[in-house]
C-alpha cells in the first residue's frame, strides 16, 4: 500500500526567527563599531599640541626645550611628557626629563607609550611618563636636545592619563573589539541572508497550489 508523501512544512516561524535574529546581531555590531571607534580615538594621543607646537587642549602645560615648567597636578595620576617638533625633522632629548614634587623628591620615570601625534606639520612623541603621589605642584625640567641642530625648535608638552598599562589595555581592547565586530557582522549577515532565502522558499511553497499544508 502506498502512502502519500507528508505535507510540506510551510510555517515561516523558523525563517522569521533566523532573519530577525540576524538583524538584531547587525544592530549590535553597529553599536559595537561605534564603541570601538570611540575607544580607538581615546587611545590615540590627539589634542596634545597645536599647529604652532604649543600645548593643545588636552595638555596640562608645557615649556620650550630646554626649559622648566611648574604645574599643579592631581593625586595618583599618570602624566606623559611629549617632545614636539616640526614633522619634517627629527628630534630627541639628551636625557630623560626630571620631575620633582613640592618636597624636592624626584619622581621615578615609567616606560613612556610609543605613541605619536601629528597635527599641522607638528609631531609629538612620548618621551617620559611619571605618576604623582599627591596633589600639588610638580616641576618638570626638560634637558636640551641630543642634537640641537636637528630641528629649528622643540617644545615639551605634558598631558594626563597616558600611562603604559592604560594605553595597551585600550589598544588590545580596540583590536579585540574590531575582531568581535567583524565576527558578529558576518554571522548576522549570514543569518539575514539565510533566513531571507528560507523565508522566501517557505512562502513560495505556501503560495503554490497543491503544496500547502492541508486543513
Write structural notes for this entry.
The chain is of the alpha+beta class. Helix content is 35%, strand content 24%. The chain contains two helices and eight strands. The strands form two sheets. A five-stranded antiparallel sheet has the order 1-8-3-6-5, with no helix packed on it. β5 and β6 form a beta hairpin. α1 runs antiparallel to α2 (164-207). The radius of gyration is 30 Å and the shape is elongated. The two termini are 24 Å apart.
Give the H and E element order: HEEEEEEEEH
The pLDDT mean sits at 79
Count of DSSP H/I helices: 2
Which consecutive residue ranges, at least 5 long each, have pLDDT under 50?
A: 163-171
**Cα shape:** elongated
How would you characterize the largest beta sheet? 5 strands, antiparallel
Gyration radius (Cα, Å) is 30 Å
Name the helicity range: 25-40%
Helix-strand makeup class = alpha+beta
Order of strands in the sheet with most strands: 1-8-3-6-5
Give the end-to-end Cα distance, rounded to a whole number of Å.
Answer: 24 Å
**Structure summary, number of beta strands:** 8
Instruction: Tell me the β content.
Output: 15-25%
Key features of this structure:
215 residues; alpha+beta; five-stranded antiparallel sheet; three-stranded antiparallel sheet; 2 helices; 8 strands; 24% strand; elongated
Amino acid at each position: 500500500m502506498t502512502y502519500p508523501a507528508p505535507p510540506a512544512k510551510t510555517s515561516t516561524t523558523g525563517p522569521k526567527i533566523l532573519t530577525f535574529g540576524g538583524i538584531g546581531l547587525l544592530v549590535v555590531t553597529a553599536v559595537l563599531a561605534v564603541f570601538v571607534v570611540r575607544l580607538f580615538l581615546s587611545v590615540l594621543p590627539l589634542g596634545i599640541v597645536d599647529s604652532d607646537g604649543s600645548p593643545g587642549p588636552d595638555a596640562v602645560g608645557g615649556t620650550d626645550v630646554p626649559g622648566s615648567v611648574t604645574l599643579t597636578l592631581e593625586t595618583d595620576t599618570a602624566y606623559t611628557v611629549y617632545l614636539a617638533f616640526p614633522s619634517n625633522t627629527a628630534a630627541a632629548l639628551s636625557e630623560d626629563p626630571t620631575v620633582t614634587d613640592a618636597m624636592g623628591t624626584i619622581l621615578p620615570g615609567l616606560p613612556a607609550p610609543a605613541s605619536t601625534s601629528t597635527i599641522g606639520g607638528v609631531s609629538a612623541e612620548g618621551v617620559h611618563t611619571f605618576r604623582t603621589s599627591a596633589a600639588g605642584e610638580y616641576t618638570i625640567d626638560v634637558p636640551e636636545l641630543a642634537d640641537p641642530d636637528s630641528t629649528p625648535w622643540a617644545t615639551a608638552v605634558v598631558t594626563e592619563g597616558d600611562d603604559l598599562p592604560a594605553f595597551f589595555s585600550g589598544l588590545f581592547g580596540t583590536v579585540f573589539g574590531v575582531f568581535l565586530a567583524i565576527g558578529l557582522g558576518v554571522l548576522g549577515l549570514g543569518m539575514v541572508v539565510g533566513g531571507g532565502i528560507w523565508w522566501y522558499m517557505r512562502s513560495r511553497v505556501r503560495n503554490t497550489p497543491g503544496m500547502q499544508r492541508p486543513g
